[in-house]
């Protein structure tokens, strides 16, 4: 069985592609690859977008005070191991 994270990523990927197709007016009946849709919209791969957002969030958490909830939940510890 797939992990919850993997399932969420698949759902996000599907939703993102569906939105892009809707914006371009591409019917589900027309055979257009996801790569072609990304080229038409000028968007990056969904995995790249998610990785960038996660890294941006991690950068914010690392700069926070070490006693904040977000920092504690993330398991980030500078100069030590994570929780």
Strand tally is 0
| Contiguous helical run count | 4
Overall average pLDDT: 77
Provide the succession of SSEs: HHHH
Instruction: Provide the low-confidence segments as ranges.
Output: 79-83
Structural class: mainly alpha
Radius of gyration (CA) equals 18 Å
Shape: elongated
Helical fraction? 55-70%
Count of separate structural domains: 2
State the distance separating the first and last CA atoms.
Answer: 26 Å
Strand share of the residues? under 5%
- Let me know the largest β-sheet: none
What does this structure look like?
It is a single chain. This protein has two domains: 1-43; 46-83, no CATH class. It is 64% helix and 0% strand. It has helices spanning 4-24, 34-41, 46-63, 69-74. Residues 79-83 have low confidence and may be disordered.
Main features:
disordered C terminus, 83 residues, 4 helices, 2 domains, mainly alpha
């Amino acid at each position: 069985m797939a992990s919850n994270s993997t399932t969420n990523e698949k759902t996000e990927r599907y939703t993102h592609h569906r939105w892009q197709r809707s914006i371009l007016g591409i019917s589900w009946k027309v055979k257009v690859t996801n790569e072609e849709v990304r080229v038409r919209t000028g968007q990056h791969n969904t995995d790249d977008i998610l990785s960038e957002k996660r890294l941006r969030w991690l950068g914010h958490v690392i700069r926070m005070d070490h006693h904040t909830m977000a920092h504690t939940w993330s398991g980030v510890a500078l100069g030590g191991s994570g929780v």
